[in-house]
Design brief:
With 332 residues, the protein is of the alpha/beta class. The strands form 2 sheets. Strands 7-6-5-8-9 form a 5-stranded parallel sheet. The longest helix has 20 residues. The radius of gyration is 19 Å and the shape is globular. The model has no long low-confidence stretch (mean pLDDT 96).
């Protein structure tokens, strides 16, 4: 098993804080832990520890991944939902961190600005893990890269095309991750939906060291040619007003992932999505959008989502294995 001792006591806030070797070690460790779970081999490496899970934004996959991973490691997780904590309301981030850091061995935060999770880590005195902020989603990227490694035979040099709104946590984090790991990243969207220029420049500097390629292309057929992975996400992020739906549907419908797009990429191309996905009318949001705008899917068609080229549920499962790796590495 890979030696993870150098990670002990560190927080996991964004991939920019970690070297390519660090990221590779975490992915490899996650694969080892996944193999142990599949074989039914106990791995209670953090027996008796307790962790706090702060969720200012709810999530099925992130909560379940942290709670199951914690249980597998022998830990006790305490879930604090949006109404279960006074963080930033009656109590400052710094004060919350210093209280929780005395009671828990680690803290997960899922919510709003990146500065919140950075401040938690600054004051807590225990490892803090970013379960999602407006700017970054690093645990998702570890799961994505483990999934790519499993299905594409490796990570380095693979071409990943992100289609849609690339200005927020998923576009940012995939671009950073691809830059770090020597991949070929393409943001495919209208130009106003590309990541911010400062982060792009940071990633270009990283790419000079790793051999990564970064491209920003508006034409879907040009962007997706030869892609190993086509990745998309919902068009309206959590916390954004309903008023943006009309604009996003108008701007991003040409960037919907269809079977024509997948075929343009090539037979070996795989489809990924961090979920939830609006690929049919079996959700309240999807049905309401259909009634208002007359479309039966949004960022991906049901044909692609349900096809054998879709690896979204392997990807979702890998959230648990990679989150487990992060917690075990930083707490053991």
């Amino acid at each position: 098993m890979v030696d993870m001792s150098e990670f002990k006591g560190r927080s996991f806030l964004k991939l920019l804080d970690y070297t390519p070797d660090d990221i590779g070690d975490l992915i490899h460790y996650a694969a080892e832990l996944k193999a142990l779970k599949k074989a039914g081999v106990p791995h209670r490496y953090c027996e008796g520890k307790s962790i706090a899970l702060i969720f200012e934004k709810t999530s099925t996959r992130t909560r379940c991944a942290f709670e199951v991973a914690a249980a597998d490691l022998g830990m006790h997780p305490v879930y604090l939902d949006p109404s279960g904590s006074q963080i930033g309301k009656k109590e400052s981030i710094a004060d919350t961190a210093r209280v929780l850091g005395r009671m828990f061995d680690g803290i997960e935060y899922r919510g709003f600005g990146q500065q919140i999770v950075e401040d938690l880590a600054r004051f807590a005195g225990v490892p803090v893990w970013n379960g999602l902020t407006n700017e970054f989603h690093p645990t998702q990227i570890l799961a994505d890269f483990l999934t790519i490694r499993e299905h594409c035979g490796g990570i380095e040099g693979k071409k990943l095309v992100y289609m849609g709104d690339a200005r927020y946590n998923m576009g940012n984090s995939l671009m950073v991750g691809c830059a770090k790991m020597g991949m070929h990243f393409v943001a495919c969207a209208p130009a106003k939906y590309f990541p911010n220029a400062e982060l792009v420049e940071t990633c270009r500097e990283i790419a000079k060291e790793t051999g990564a390629t970064l491209e920003f292309i508006e034409d879907p057929m040009t962007a997706t040619k030869g892609a190993d992975v086509i990745y998309t996400d919902v068009w309206v992020s959590m916390g954004e007003p309903d008023s943006v739906w009309q604009e996003r549907i108008r701007d991003l419908t040409p960037y919907r992932v269809t079977m024509d797009i997948m075929n343009n990429a090539g037979e070996a191309c795989r489809f990924m999505h961090c979920l939830p996905a609006f690929h049919d009318l079996r959700t309240t949001t999807g049905y309401n959008v259909y009634k208002k705008f007359g479309i039966d899917c949004m960022e991906v068609t049901d044909e692609v989502f349900e096809s054998d080229r879709s690896i979204v549920f392997d990807e979702a499962e890998n959230r648990m294995h990679t989150i487990k790796a992060v917690m075990a590495a930083t707490l053991r």
